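*** Query protein ***
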Amino acid sequence: MAHFARIENETVVEVIVIANAVLLDKNGQEQESIGATFCHDTFGGEWVQTSYSAKFKSKFACPGDTWDGTNFTREESATDVV
């Protein structure tokens, strides 16, 4: 399964899961751009792939996170500290 985050004004507003098969190019290789286009065409908006295991883009995207064009980040607040 592949996870994609919808971005509005550099902020993650939702994260969805799509089948890996949606990402495959004609050579059977996964391509983020194909998944992002699928999400855009299906749901509208800007979509960026995120990694549940944080293998890329620094962390798994969650609603409220910031997208800087390269990585997802979350500003830590006093309520985030346990």
